[in-house]
Amino acid sequence: MTEGSDYIDTASFFTRSSLRGTMGAVSINDSEVDVRRRVEIRPVRVHDARRLARKPTIETQGFELARIAGPAQFPGGGEAAEKALGLEAQHLVRALTGCRDTKVIHRQHRSGYPGNSQAPPVAAGKKPPGEAPPVYAMEMHADISPWAERQSDWEGLSEGRHCAVFTVWRSLDFDREVLRAPLALCDVRTVMAEDMVALCMLGIGDDAMVTYGLAHSLFHRWCYYPRIAPHEAVVFKLYDTREERPERRQVFHGAVHDPSTPPDAPLRKSLDIRVLALFDSETEIEVRRDRFIAQLPPIPDALEQHFRRMS
């Protein structure tokens, strides 16, 4: 992004429009050919959310920028720091949503290395071994679909209450701002249900998992927060049992390339903390859950058999 600009023009990975209305399959063992059959690169304009006349909120756009504790609150790293980061994320979600209680249900570290990496710090500009470019989640996606409510631990987590899952996204580099691979977020008001492509994730964990890819649309409005500081976090919605419209339950997101990134910019080290927010008691949970799941495309027989083997 050039100085004074309200946006960046870049490109990103979207699920092919031809897959709208289907249930696709994604595997950790997918070849490059498999990936190319599923995704396409499309141009995208990403607006600087800091410069918008009205600041985005969780209530309206589905995401929000918040101030958090600085690095002095988390000395030394290790389990104590991880616990403190989780407690801070829970407090933040309670403050932003007014929910009654919260639980940390997942953490994801990203450092430019493949997978849920706990790799050592990387020197400025250095690419991870064997990876070019650095690995971040650059396919536009949403992590949770109603299928999550079929998982074995959901009932215990939700405690018979309406709930929502939020991601608290922050940098783990306490010395500098985020310069590489910023997070782009799509305003929930600009997504249509037909833009969402259900994807069955195979080979990840013990439970079956269905997420969403996103087909490209010129109507989508993308935003990002350039130069996220160590005392800032982005909070965005991943799932909400209170929301009837499927396109409003989650924020589609993914890393993008900022054309103005300095070539020697350090790899981004970030942490996603997923927080489950619990609200009031829910009546007729099974009826509502079945209605949500019925909004997903039909599951191919081969995938259904796979689910049954795993359950």
Element layout with pairings:
Elements: E1 7-15, E2 23-27, H1 32-38, E3 39-48, E4 63-67, H2 78-97, E5 101-110, E6 141-142, H3 154-158, E7 161-171, E8 183-186, E9 196-202, E10 209-214, E11 222-224, E12 232-240, E13 253-255, E14 270-281, H4 285-294, H5 301-310
Parallel strand pairs: 2-9, 3-11
Antiparallel strand pairs: 1-3, 4-12, 5-14, 6-10, 7-12, 7-14, 8-11, 8-13, 9-10
Number of strands: 14
Report Rg. Answer: 19 Å
Bulk shape: globular
Q: Can you tell me the CATH topology?
A: Jelly Rolls
Beta percentage is: 25-35%
Q: CATH top level? A: Mainly Beta
**Which spans of ≥5 residues are poorly predicted at pLDDT below 50?**
116-132
List its traits.
single chain; 311 residues; alpha+beta; Jelly Rolls; 5-stranded mixed β-sheet; 5-stranded antiparallel β-sheet
Plain-language structure description:
By secondary structure, the chain is α+β, with helices and mostly antiparallel strands. The chain has one domain (7-123, 136-310): Jelly Rolls (Sandwich). Helix content is 17%, strand content 31%. The chain contains 5 helices and 14 strands. The protein has helices spanning 32-38, 78-97, 154-158, 285-294, 301-310; strands spanning 7-15, 23-27, 39-48, 63-67, 101-110, 141-142, 161-171, 183-186, 196-202, 209-214, 222-224, 232-240, 253-255, 270-281. The protein has a 5-stranded mixed beta sheet with strand order 1-3-11-8-13. A 5-stranded antiparallel beta sheet has the order 4-12-7-14-5, with helices on one face. A 4-stranded mixed beta sheet has the order 2-9-10-6, with no helix packed on it. The longest helix has 20 residues, at 78-97. It is globular.
